[in-house]
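S1.2 Input.
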Amino acid sequence: MSRTDLGMPAFPRAAERATRDQRLRGNLRHATHTIRAKRATAVAELDDWQRLRAAGAAVKNRTLRHLDHYLLQAEAAVTEAGGTVHWAADAAEANRIVAGLVKRTGEREVVKVKSMATQETGLNAALEAEGIRAYETDLAELIVQLGHDRPSHILVPAIHRNRGEIRDIFRREMAAWGRPAPEALGDDPAELAEAARLHLREKFLRAKVGVSGANFLVAETGTLVVLESEGNGRMCLTLPDTLISVVGIEKIVPTWRDLEVFLQLLPRSSTAERMNPYTTTWTGTTDGDGPRAFHLVLLDNGRTDALADTVGRQALRCIRCSACLNVCPVYERAGGHAYGSAYPGPIGAILTPQLRGVTDPLDASLPYASSLCGACYEVCPVAIDIPEVLVHLRERVVEGGRVTRHGARVTIKPAKGHAAERAAMRAARWTFDHPRALRAGERLASRTRRLHPSRLRVLPGPARAWSDSRDLPAVPPEPFRDWWARHRAAKGERE
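S1.3 Output.
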């Protein structure tokens, strides 16, 4: 994954700063509560939602088990349909491929469909370094780009902005990127949308190269699928002479029949609609219809490392609906920027550390960016057990780091700074294995009852870090062991 976030603090520090921004918290609270309420209504319409959810998970699991087969099938189908397939091992290679393809056309600007994969690779910055300007055409992505900002949500990248802020951004920045905003532009959503539409129209009609991602890639026909709500994506996918699609290797589904399952799951989970207003499909090239040249860049960038992890690989089932973000109490308060990745929220907390490893302080902190409440699992349309993966990754942070493959051998790169935690876990294991030692420790700990609860606010030593962010529970008046003995004795007397 491209490290455009280098220098960002670990999640706890970034979140602490974000939670002090009252306007940000208000924007997030209003938006996430609105989206999740609508989603709940849309999902409740289907009696077989849980069966659909299970079917989606099963299709993804089957695809991941045979990913090599479906990738080669997709490559053959795309090639037969007139497209060209490129393989990118990492973000840098993907960016080099795309930049080279654009240069080959002689063009110096591209229009873009909203794409998580190109955010992941940092494509826009890479193209700019090559003298190529990339124009985002999704409304929310346009707001982020004009505001010199970063996306903070998978579905609604500008969720942290309110309409007054958007109006100010349009007034201030649009002229430098093309058609200026109307002088009397207000903050009415219809006015803002019209200003964006007029600004983008000249770019659609002028652009010769389009860049996209894809929600799905159907292996049996080599067909790519993009779901959207505005129509800007369809303009990018049909008007340019050259189309370049950067797609993660996990986006494959085997057949059109499998695709049908996800075309029900994704709209309801993301936009709370029965189906997306625009579902665009394309297969290679067709004379006289659409782009004359099509290039598919299949992106690995850590995905095969994630696939090697039998617990963590379920993150690759993700269909980028963002439902988990909208119910997460941590995301709601901290926002997306604190995650330091293209993938914020609960899914980012498990996907990013697997794609990038956990040797960097920011990435190592992400598995802890959760209360483990389980709300994310309950709404996930492909049943990713995010809490399970979070706990698994916390173990990896403590025990080692990134899993790397050397042929058939798997090794774990040792992590630093966790010797004390490992020693404490070993001591706990030994204590639980020796009942007498456990009993002695419990009786020693029971002496803390002599301290008044109001005086015991902070734990001593390394445990202080735990109590710094939590309220200590009140100490029971007597040990459970004593209560149990007394309870059993009283019961025996009654019998």
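S1.4 Remarks. The CA atoms of residues 359 and 401 lie 6 Å apart.
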